[in-house]
Specification:
Blueprint lengths: L23 E5 L2 E6 L2 E8 L7 H19 L3 E10 L4 E2 L2 E2 H16 L9 E7 L4 E8 L4 E3 L24 E5 L4 E8 L2 E2 L2 E2 L5 H23 L8 E9 L5 H8 L8 E6 L9 E9 L1
Parallel strand pairs: 4-7, 14-15
Antiparallel strand pairs: 1-2, 2-3, 3-8, 4-8, 5-6, 9-10, 10-11, 11-16, 12-13, 14-16
Helix pairs in contact: 1-2, 3-4
């Protein structure tokens, strides 16, 4: 799938998820997926129609997603990425991100067993153009979903942020016989539920680093696995709202271990207009 998110450093990259096991593929009306063993990687892509509220489209997409996962016997969501344009724009008396959260909540509250404690790690980023694109990892077995000690659970945000709170966990840990994976949700300069350091990209990056450190420590304690050090590998994506802030963000990140890992810098709009940088990650521990 193609995302209209400009890459800010180096030549363009192609992200490939692979396995040495046999793969089964599925295609059906905007839904596509590949499954191998206990996990499945899939996408849902729906075009917006003029005048259609984003909450209606989002609810339809998530209901479609869950219907297919149940049919395929991969009912447990581990990780979800959401992308759509004009995320901070307004339509039908709601910011589009708030409308997206409303539609997602309607579908998940109805169809996800164990909601909200079973919510997976999630990201929502605004693209320059394109349809609503959701890609996800699901499992035949449940994973462990985590909060961040420095932040309120997103699904417990007050209604200041919209008619329904965002439906995602701060991180998810999945396990296999050989390794564990930590999926880090989009993480920004939010403490409690409040945005910090408005207008200051360096300070927002430093606050985000503090949130990531707290999350990593909590994940290691909960999962009893090391997600830092020589036995782990990581991929981080850094979303920067304004390309003019790139050099300041990159320099600030040198104080955090992700500077030595594989990092992609992408330009995208974030869920709150005041947020300037967001970081997500995938860490594999042997």
């Amino acid at each position: 799938m193609h995302l209209d998110l400009p890459e800010l450093v180096g030549p363009p990259h192609l992200e490939v998820w692979g396995t040495t096991s046999p793969v089964r593929t599925y295609r059906d009306e905007g839904f596509s997926a590949s499954a191998s063993g206990n996990f499945l990687f899939g996408t849902v892509t729906l075009d917006e129609r003029p005048g259609q509220p984003i909450e209606t489209l989002t609810e339809r997409a998530y209901r479609r997603l869950f219907s297919c996962l149940q049919d395929l016997a991969y009912p447990h969501l581990w990780r979800v990425w959401n992308y759509f344009p004009d995320i901070n724009g307004f339509a039908h008396e709601l910011e589009r991100y708030q409308g997206f959260c409303l539609g997602r909540h309607r579908a998940l509250a109805d169809m996800l067993p164990g909601f909200p404690l079973s919510l997976p790690a999630g990201t929502a980023v605004g693209t320059r153009s394109g349809p609503l694109q959701i890609y996800f990892i699901a499992g035949a077995l449940p994973a462990t979903h985590l909060g961040n000690p420095r932040q309120v659970h997103a699904y417990e945000y007050p209604q200041d942020y919209g008619p329904r709170s965002p439906s995602f966990a701060r991180a998810t840990v999945s396990r296999s016989e050989t390794h564990s994976q930590l999926y880090i949700a989009g993480t920004a300069s939010v403490v409690g539920h409040t945005s910090r350091h408005v207008g200051l990209p360096k300070e927002q990056t430093l606050e985000t680093i503090q949130n990531l450190r707290a999350l990593l420590a909590h994940a290691e304690s909960t999962a009893r696995r090391q997600f830092t050090g020589p036995r782990s590998t990581a991929l981080y994506k850094v979303y920067v709202r304004d390309a003019a802030h790139l050099s300041e963000v990159r320099e600030t990140l040198r104080s955090f271990p992700l500077s030595s890992e594989q990092v992609l810098f992408l330009q995208g709009e974030l869920c709150r207009k005041e947020l300037l940088v967001e970081i997500e990650g995938l860490i594999t521990s042997d």
